[in-house]
Amino acid sequence: MEDMRQTILEAALAIADERGLDAVSMRAVGLRVGLSAMALYPHVSSKEALLDGMVEVLLTELVPLAGVDHPAGQESDPAAVGGDAGEEWWQRLVALAQAARKLAGRHPSAFTLLLSRPSVTPEALRATDALYQTILDAGVPDDQVARVERLLSTFVMGFAASEVNGRFSRGTLTPRSRRTQLAPAQLPAHYRLAAHLDDEIDFDAEFEADLTDLRILLDSIRSSPA
C-alpha cells in the first residue's frame, strides 16, 4: 500500500513538471497510474493530502541532493561539503541552499508548494527536523531556531522560485523600456539606479553574496545572549 502511495505522489509530481501545478487533480493522477480517482482515496485521502504528499516528495529529494544526508547519530564528513569541522554546520546550510536551487530547476511548478504549504507528513517532518538540527548545531538559542528556519528557508525558496518561474527575468520589457514609460520625476529611484538596473545579473554570484549576508546575520543571532 505504501508503494502505491509513493507511485501516486511521483505521478502527481510528474504531471506538475509536464503541465503545471494546476493540472494536478485526483482524476489526472488516477489516469496516470491506471486507477479511477476513487481508487486513489485508500492511498491518498484527498486532494489536500495529495499536495501534502508532493511536499514530502520534494523535501525528501532535497536532502540527498545536497549531499549532506547521514544517519541519525553519525557525524557528516565536513570535507564532503568543502568545510572544516568548526564550520560543518554552515557548510550543511550552504549545501541545502544550493540544492534548493537545483530542486527548483527540476520541478519549477511544484516547487512553489514549499512556499504555500507546511510540512505535515512524517517524512516531510524528518527533513524539516534535519534543518532544525543544523541550526541548533550552529549554536542558535532554542527559542530562536524556528524563527531562523523561517528566515533562511523563505529567502532560499523565494529566491529559487523567483529565478525559475520568471520573477527575476527581463520579462516583456527591458529595464530601460519599463523605466521610460514614466518621466524621471515619477520614477526618481529607477532613473538614479539606471546603470545598475540595466546590467546583466549573475544570479550565481548574487546568491552566494546573499548567503554571505545571511551568515553575518546568523552569527549575530548566535552571539546574542540566550
TrEMBL record:
SUPFAM superfamilies: Homeodomain-like, Tetracyclin repressor-like, C-terminal domain. InterPro entries: Homeodomain-like_sf, HTH-type_TetR-like_transc_reg, HTH_TetR, Repressor_TetR_C, Tet_transcr_reg_TetR-rel_C_sf. This is AcrR family transcriptional regulator. Pfam families: TetR_C_1 (PF02909), TetR_N (PF00440). It comes from the Bacteria. It comes from Kribbella aluminosa. Residues 25-44 bind DNA. Residues 2-62 form the HTH tetR-type domain. Keywords: DNA-binding, Transcription, Transcription regulation.
